[in-house]
Amino acid sequence: MTDYGHDLLFGSFITPTNADPEQVLALTSASEAAGLDLATFQDHPYQPGFFDTWTLLSFLAARTSTIRLTANVLNLPLRPPAVVARAAASLDILSGGRIELGLGAGAFWDAIVAMGGERLTPGESITALGEAIEIIRGIWDTGDHSRLRVDGTHHRVHGAKRGPAPAHDMGIWLGAYKPRILRLTGRAADGWLPSLAYMKSIQDLVDANEIIDGAASAAGRQPGDVRRLLNITGRLTSAPSEQMLVGPPEQWVEQLATLTLEHGFSGYVLGGDDPRAIAVLGQEIAPALRELVAAERGSSPEPR
């Protein structure tokens, strides 16, 4: 069993289409009303059918009061890391500490190049992501009064001023699947945010956890320093089934409890843009899962 002991987080994964801006706001507001911790949004800057993510996050931060917001995950190849650092910290301050930072190494390289980005190999993109994390953390480190200098292969800053610092201890969560980026996650990130649909089996989660744990330990960190979050999809039905997350709420609770207690996951982000599913996740599944996990751990459920 692998239980890193983190409090449980629940969120929504909303498609930020600009075809119906009121729907994006309505789904975010529904997520907040349901008591979810997070609302997350895709970031594809080359896709004109989607809102620009930072503009959208700023708008939604101003229209909500409690829910945390993040990209799921931010397209780094089209965003300079020093600017990302300042944008994230600024919005965190303005929103009262409600921003997290999900980062991705990049995909859809033809579209990235069409928007002016540099085409990178998979290995180069992970090197660039590691350099970006170093720059972002350096910008946030206002306790260091020296100018920031990072001379990377893909990202460089030569004497950048530091600051601002985020209003809270902002997490850097990586969308990661292959061994090299999983090792980077263990060395340098605060969270791992894959999608269950991209995993061939539960064994893939086990194997990835082992890579992250090993890299964290080798870097002098505790494996529990890296929160494990999971993008999930499913279907709520009245009758149980043998399928993962296809069944009534109590089946979801049992299956998510296994992922929590045996595989260390502590954040579940539901995709699908279904307001009813968002409500059931926040009002039925989340409290029942918190209670079950607390009972297994021998602790009291987290207050909401």
What does this 3D model show about the protein?
With 304 residues, the chain is of the alpha/beta class. The chain has a single domain (9-297), classed as Luciferase-like domain (TIM Barrel, Alpha-Beta Barrel), CATH 3.20.20.30. Helix content is 42%, strand content 17%. The chain is built from nine helices and 13 strands. It has a nine-stranded parallel sheet with strand order 3-2-1-13-10-9-8-5-4, covered by helices on one side. Strand 4, helix 3 and strand 5 form a beta-alpha-beta unit. The longest helix has 23 residues, at 275-297. The chain is globular. The mean pLDDT is 96.
Topology:
Blueprint: E1 9-14, H1 21-33, E2 38-41, H2 53-63, E3 68-71, E4 74-75, H3 81-94, E5 101-104, H4 109-114, H5 122-140, E6 148-151, E7 156-160, E8 172-174, H6 179-188, E9 191-192, H7 202-218, E10 227-232, E11 235-236, E12 246-247, H8 249-263, E13 265-271, H9 275-297
Parallel strand pairs: 1-2, 1-13, 2-3, 4-5, 5-8, 8-9, 9-10, 10-13, 11-12
Antiparallel strand pairs: 6-7
Helix pairs in contact: 1-9, 3-5, 5-6, 6-7, 8-9
What structural keywords apply?
alpha/beta, TIM Barrel, 9-stranded parallel β-sheet, two-stranded antiparallel sheet, 9 helices, 13 strands, 42% helix
Number of helices: 9
Q: What's the SSE pattern?
A: EHEHEEHEHHEEEHEHEEEHEH
What fraction, in percent, of the residue positions are helical?
A: 40-55%
Task: Assign the structural class, choosing from mainly alpha, mainly beta, alpha/beta, alpha+beta, or little secondary structure.
Answer: alpha/beta
Structural shape: globular
Task: Supply Rg.
Answer: 19 Å
CATH superfamily: Luciferase-like domain
Unreliable spans: none
| Cα end-to-end separation | 27 Å
CATH architectural label: Alpha-Beta Barrel
